[in-house]
Amino acid sequence: RVTEFCDLLFGDELPTRAQLISTFRLRVPQQPLPYEDSGTYSVSAAAVMDAIRAHNTPWGAAGGLKERLRGVDLCAALRLCAGQAPPAPPVAGGSPYFCEHADCQEVWTTESVGALAQYLEGRVQALRAGDRPIVEVGAGPGRLAALLNRTGLISTRVIATDIQDFGHGYPQEAIEQSAALRKYQPAIIMSSWMPVRHDWSKQWRAMPFVSEYVLIG
């Protein structure tokens, strides 16, 4: 089950919604689950957090982490990934350890990435953006941009940018946000899980070449 969990969340092949439901034997909620910052954690959640803190490494490269998580409730782990259980303890910025060290803020599926790609292509055509790339800022390791490009549904590139090089094997440019936008002058900007209490969109709205930005999370 742990191997399936890691493969579904971090693998190069996207799972379908049905695969997620089948693997985790749960109903994928239509609405976000409540976030209860009560300061108490289930045994399962604590075990997941302890394992992540101990290894301080992305899940995809953590063979030992898989061993430590044997027998852990993976439903709890999935909820932690979605930010639906409180962090134990919080890290800088208030993000759960799972999000910080696994570089995973969202569980992507074939359906969700396909729908996002179709939307973006529709906007590229409507805005007559031509071959100007879509720029993802705060892209982390660049997995989402890679998945979108792989669909073949978008007539231009999606370029993943972040202030640091995450080195996870996906195309990702280490560049400061303002410099990236000046370099590529995109009509469309995308950001998935912008940091809490930060609003990057103010500077985007001041850039004459930006027609739209898409926020996820």
From TrEMBL:
SUPFAM superfamilies reported in the protein's UniProt record: S-adenosyl-L-methionine-dependent methyltransferases
Source organism of the structure: Eutreptiella gymnastica
UniProt protein name: Type II protein arginine methyltransferase
